């Protein structure tokens, strides 16, 4: 059984393909990130996703441990989650999420 959560605020990001709520727009930390499809947003908290496998990934800002995240409803890839950053100045990303702009839409 899928458990779908909802965001009360009117300003929120949804999964592009199934419109399930993913994040409130006021949880965006930065819009200056780059994902595999182009612009990506760093977000404090994301709901209605499940984790893919954990892996080490070399990103523009160095080596990180990440896992891809997928929409809990339609199973489409929407971004990734930072589990660990090795560089001290990248530690603020740990526990935060990336949503790819091309894979989400605004309510
Ligand atoms: Zn979806």
TrEMBL record:
<dbReference type="InterPro" id="IPR004910">
    <property type="entry name" value="Yippee/Mis18/Cereblon"/>
</dbReference>
<dbReference type="Pfam" id="PF03226">
    <property type="entry name" value="Yippee-Mis18"/>
</dbReference>
<keyword id="KW-0479">Metal-binding</keyword>
<comment type="similarity">
    <text>Belongs to the yippee family.</text>
</comment>
<dbReference type="GO" id="GO:0046872">
    <property type="term" value="F:metal ion binding"/>
</dbReference>
<dbReference type="InterPro" id="IPR034751">
    <property type="entry name" value="Yippee"/>
</dbReference>
<keyword id="KW-0862">Zinc</keyword>
<dbReference type="InterPro" id="IPR039058">
    <property type="entry name" value="Yippee_fam"/>
</dbReference>
<protein>
    <recommendedName>
        <fullName>Protein yippee-like</fullName>
    </recommendedName>
</protein>
<feature type="domain" description="Yippee">
    <location>
        <begin position="11"/>
        <end position="107"/>
    </location>
</feature>
